[in-house]
């Protein structure tokens, strides 16, 4: 018997329970026994057995097996996927057939033959594991469709089908993952889904936007500090990495880290420990790392702007999220999804989009990706007085398309950046958040580009 697992044995005869416990101990991970059918639900919720070995007859009725069938119904009501093996001294074909029809997995007789009993329980354990795997995969597919409370991962395009398939394949891994994609493509959503389907599903999920943390606060935010470590440190505070220990740490916009900060992060990951500011002793950490960026880190490594050893540490697996402009009809699926949500939020009854409006959405380049589409639909729902959204309900800044079109005309990267930043600033009337959105970068990254370009 190769399989090992947890078994609950229910029988009114204590000698039988003792004998089975002795026999199965070398072959099972854990064994619980009881003479009281009333305790079944308690053991199912606290012990969570892989297999239940259930006596068919108790004191009230010696031969009919009805008490066993009543217990079977109770078990399957508590857990429809439970694996139950019936056991009786009065085995006959009719009872065996009825037991299988009513949901039992198999049937063994007393006195048992050791090898046959072990073979039956081994098959039952395999079935239990198979049912759990199927259930987990079904839960994943429901979640990918948005049916269990998770944010919905919408899209039927080949590019998105590949993303969904990859997320499913990564469900049982604890490997570090690097999510690549433009701003607004939903990298944070993918990170949360990867956490949800990981062995750390029930542990902490701590997200940090590295693009929004000033360099001088990096260490205190990530590693924490002790009381008195600096002027305003009136009490000790754990860092984000310490809080995430045992769970998942999501580092968004990791491409924005400076080289000195990259070195400190790498040291913490390699040593699996951090030192709070002002502390002497290190604190061990155990985190599963998921990172995201819109930057080409391999190019950054070649240019000397990103440490190669840190890249190796964070990208055990790379997962690329396609931009919205490459997702075809997904644009319309997302538009309908957002329309439904904002109809509910703003108490509107807009029925859909005209054909012309749909064509306008499909032709636009969406530099801000799904986030921009979401904001566009929200604005349209708020302002429109029509039953159908029309092309005039959607306003797209000319600068976004101009930047997209002129990229092929000018090959000097610095000039392209300067033109793009200047046009975005003009189109947004100096609004830095809007300009960053048009450019598909964070506001912090925009400030760095303005300083670099001397604008």
UniProtKB/TrEMBL annotation:
Residues 6-125 form the Response regulatory domain. Gene3D superfamilies: 1.10.8.60, 3.40.50.2300, Homeodomain-like, P-loop containing nucleotide triphosphate hydrolases. InterPro entries: AAA+_ATPase, AAA_lid_NorR, CheY-like_superfamily, Homeodomain-like_sf, HTH_Fis, P-loop_NTPase, Sig_transdc_resp-reg_receiver, Sigma_54_int. Residues 153-382 form the Sigma-54 factor interaction domain. The modification 4-aspartylphosphate is found at residue 55. Keywords: ATP-binding, DNA-binding, Nucleotide-binding, Phosphoprotein, Transcription, Transcription regulation. This is Sigma-54 dependent transcriptional regulator.
């Amino acid at each position: 018997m190769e399989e090992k697992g947890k078994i609950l044995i229910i029988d009114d005869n204590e000698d039988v329970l003792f004998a089975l416990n002795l026999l199965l101990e070398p072959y099972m991970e854990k064994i619980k026994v009881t003479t009281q059918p009333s305790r079944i639900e308690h053991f199912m919720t606290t012990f969570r057995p892989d297999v239940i070995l259930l006596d068919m007859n108790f004191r009230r009725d010696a031969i009919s097996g009805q008490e066993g069938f009543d217990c079977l119904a109770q078990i399957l009501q508590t857990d429809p996927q439970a694996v139950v093996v019936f056991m009786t001294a009065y085995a006959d074909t009719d009872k065996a057939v009825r037991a299988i029809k009513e949901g039992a997995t198999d049937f063994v007789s007393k006195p048992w033959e050791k090898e046959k009993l072990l073979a039956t329980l081994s098959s039952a354990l395999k079935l239990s594991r198979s049912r759990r795997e199927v259930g987990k995969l079904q839960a994943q597919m429901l979640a990918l469709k948005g049916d269990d409370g998770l944010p919905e991962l919408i899209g039927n395009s080949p590019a998105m089908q590949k993303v969904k398939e990859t997320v499913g394949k990564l469900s049982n891994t604890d490997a570090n993952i690097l999510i690549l994609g433009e701003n607004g493509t939903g990298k944070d959503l993918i990170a949360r889904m990867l956490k949800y389907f990981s062995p750390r599903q029930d542990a902490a999920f701590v997200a940090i936007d590295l693009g929004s943390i000033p360099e001088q606060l990096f260490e205190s935010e990530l590693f924490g500090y002790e009381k008195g470590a600096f002027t305003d440190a009136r009490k000790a505070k754990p860092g984000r990495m310490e809080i995430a220990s045992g769970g998942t740490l999501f580092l968004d916009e990791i491409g924005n880290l400076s080289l000195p900060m990259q070195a400190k992060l790498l040291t913490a990951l390699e040593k699996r420990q951090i030192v709070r500011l002002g502390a002497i002793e290190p604190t061990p950490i155990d985190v599963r790392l998921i990172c995201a960026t819109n930057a080409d880190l391999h190019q950054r490594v070649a240019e000397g702007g990103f440490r190669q050893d840190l890249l190796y540490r964070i990208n055990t697996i790379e997962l690329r999220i396609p931009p919205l402009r490459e997702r075809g009809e997904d644009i319309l699926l997302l538009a309908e999804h957002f329309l439904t949500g904002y109809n509910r939020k703003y108490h509107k009854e807009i029925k859909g989009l005209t054909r012309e409006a749909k064509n306008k959405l499909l032709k636009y380049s969406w530099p801000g990706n799904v986030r921009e589409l979401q904001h566009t639909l929200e604005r349209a729902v708020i302002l429109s007085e029509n039953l159908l959204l029309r092309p005039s309900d959607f306003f797209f800044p000319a600068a976004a398309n101009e930047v997209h079109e002129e990229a092929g005309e000018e090959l000097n990267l610095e000039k392209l950046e300067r033109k793009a930043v200047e046009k975005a600033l003009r189109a947004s009337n100096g609004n830095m958040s809007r300009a960053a959105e048009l450019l598909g970068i964070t506001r912090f990254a925009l400030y760095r580009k303005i300083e670099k370009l001397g604008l």
